[in-house]
Amino acid sequence: MDELEEREREFKKAKVDKQKEEVARWQEDERIKEEGKKLREQREQELKRRQAEAEAAASATQDEEEPPALGELDSVLSYMAYKVRRSIGYNCSR
Question: Per the structure, how many domains does the chain have?
Answer without folding.
Answer: 1
